[in-house]
Design brief:
Elements (H helix, E strand, L loop, with lengths): L1 E10 L2 E12 L3 E5 L4 H4 L1 H11 L8 E7 L11 H11 L11 E3 L2 E2 L5 E2 L4 H10 L4 E5 L3 H4 L6 E5 L2 H9 L34 H13 L3 E4 L6 H5 L11 H12 L16 E2 L7 H5 E2 L4 E2 L1 H4 L4 E4 L7 H5 L2 H6 L1 E5 L4 E5 L3 E6 L20 H6 L4 H5 L3 E4 L5 H4 L7 H18 L14 H7 L4 H14 L3 H17 L7 H9 L11
Parallel strand pairs: 3-4, 5-8, 8-9, 10-17, 10-18, 11-14, 14-17
Antiparallel strand pairs: 1-2, 2-4, 6-7, 12-13, 15-16
Length: 512
């Protein structure tokens, strides 16, 4: 009359173990305890119908279901399956010793079929960490769970299928023990958007290559039609493929949101998120009564593209500042504190002024006096400080539009991967640091050494442009990346000079 099953609940991007205890005794009542949310409280109605339509008997007993530990808030519909199996086990309609070795999760339809749940990958990782043999999940979630090697995954279509397997009557469920989704390391994701499509814009392409090689933030400034968006959308095609650890972490975030989960990360593709400028600060950063990841976490290990940067709400942009520094978002609620990773590359674009033609070589700006500076002031100085490269994207001459094909993304990606390889070897003994943009002060002292002449050049630039200490550090990081692209041991004078020129918006005469 009593049984217990393994299950779990997702908090943030992690799953926490939950024991589903079912007890039957005389009476007619259904009690569900253990801090369940509304979706779990409604489980009794789904479970009741699913058991009957699956041609089992719903016991006319006093049924108590406890989700332990009782002091942790549970949410989601994934407890339907373990509750139903627990009722059938406690009432003697199902008998199996297998349940103690597996984690169960799944949402039941009224006809007994199983619907997908969110967080299948964190649940599978939880099962492995607790030493369980495998997981039983809806078939739609099997692809996520199979990413965890050494774990048996049983993709089920219905409640009856699970009960038959537990009883040994009809073992129709697939057993997958190893990951079968990863392609060989030499097979890299190929983006449909190629840099060869972009005519001219050599300076912007160079900035794009440097940003990709060092993981730096980038701001593209130019008139309408100059190709800012076109360039930004081709950045994923020159980024290095994701490492396995990155792919797992990225897929976990998408797993808990149900927002277009795919296994592209395991084929080398990094996320590219481009939210509309009307987005709220909560949707951008994450939050809600039950905290969910925002766009910056969905862009983790990839690119966050903010087109028309000054059009975004000031509050939404300001909340980016801390995540850009700490590479994580911390959301505090009365009952819990949740952290979401947010290690993204920020790529933004903007017009130079409201009319779009400030500093245009052939068209005159029609903005009134002071409008350019006012437009630029929509973006705070501290946020601009955190963007490593500012590049002006000039309009392309008509003659260049019909020129020879430009360099393809594959060639640029090869140089980027070579530079990233240098950085990975450099930071091999520093967990969590993979690129120059992630260097801390101690690493900068070690790897961004300058002689007296270079220090003098940098000091003059800092004084003339009136740069902050943060901008100083970002210039050094960019210079280190440029040196890596040249496979140079030390930062050269030309590397430093090129890095300094990527601070366009810091020039006093830019808005004049």
């Amino acid at each position: 009359m009593y049984c217990t099953l393994n299950s779990g609940t997702v908090m943030g991007i992690d799953a926490h173990a939950v024991q589903v205890e079912v007890h039957l005794k005389r009476g007619i009542k259904f009690f569900l305890v253990g801090l369940p949310d509304s979706a779990i409280k409604e489980a009794q109605h789904r479970v009741y119908s699913a058991i009957l339509t699956s041609e089992y008997l719903f016991p006319g007993k006093r049924i108590t279901v406890n989700l332990a530990p009782a002091d942790v808030r549970k949410e989601g519909s994934g407890f339907d399956l373990p509750i139903a199996i627990g009722i059938l086990l406690a009432s003697g309609q199902c008998d199996s010793e297998k349940v103690k070795d597996y984690l169960f999760s799944g949402e039941l339809s009224l006809d007994g079929s199983l619907n997908p749940v969110r967080g299948a990958l964190p649940l599978a990782l939880l099962a492995k960490s607790r030493g369980l043999k495998g997981v039983v999940l809806p078939r739609a979630n099997a692809a996520e769970a199979r990413l965890v090697e050494g774990l048996e995954v049983f993709p089920a279509d219905s409640l009856r299928q699970v009960v038959d397997w537990l009883g040994g009557v009809e073992p129709v469920l697939d057993v997958v023990v190893e990951t079968e989704w990863l392609k060989p390391p030499d097979e890299v994701w190929v983006e449909p958007d190629d840099l060869s499509d972009v005519k001219g814009q050599q300076a912007a392409k160079r900035a794009l290559e440097i940003a990709a090689a060092g993981g730096h933030n980038l701001l593209l400034i130019g008139p309408p039609g100059a190709g800012k968006t076109m360039l930004a959308r081709r950045l994923p095609g020159i980024l290095p493929p994701m490492r396995f650890e990155e792919a797992i972490e990225t897929t976990r975030i998408h797993s808990v949101t149900r927002k277009g989960l795919s296994l592209d990360a395991f084929r080398g593709k990094r996320p590219f998120r481009a939210p509309h400028h009307s987005i709220s600060d909560v949707a951008l950063v994450g939050g809600g009564s039950h905290p969910q990841p925002g766009e910056i976490s969905l862009a983790h290990n990839g690119v966050l593209f903010l087109d028309e940067l000054p059009e975004f709400k000031r509050a939404a942009l300001e909340v980016l500042r801390q995540p850009m520094e700490e590479r994580k978002v911390t959301i505090s609620r009365a009952q819990s504190i949740v952290e979401f990773p947010s290690g993204f590359m920020l790529v933004a674009s903007m017009n130079p002024c409201p009319c779009g033609f400030h500093n245009h070589p052939t068209r005159s700006c029609v903005c009134p006096p002071g409008a350019v500076q006012k437009y630029l002031n929509r973006i705070s100085g501290p946020l601009l400080d955190r963007i490593d490269l500012h590049i002006e994207v000039a309009p392309v001459a008509h003659a260049e539009l019909h020129g020879a094909p430009a360099e393809p993304s594959s060639s640029v990606r090869a140089r980027v991967c070579a530079a990233r390889g240098i950085q990975e070897r450099r930071f091999a003994h520093f967990p969590g640091i993979y690129s120059n943009a992630q260097m801390n002060s101690a690493l900068m002292v070690q790897h961004c050494r300058l002689d007296a002449d270079k220090k003098s050049l940098l000091s003059k630039a800092i004084e003339k442009l009136r740069l902050s200490a943060r901008a100083h550090d970002r210039i050094l990081k960019v210079a280190r990346t440029i040196a890596d692209l040249d496979a140079a041991e030390e930062i050269g004078m030309h590397h430093l000079a090129e890095a300094i020129q990527y601070r366009s918006l810091d020039r006093e005469d830019w808005a004049a």
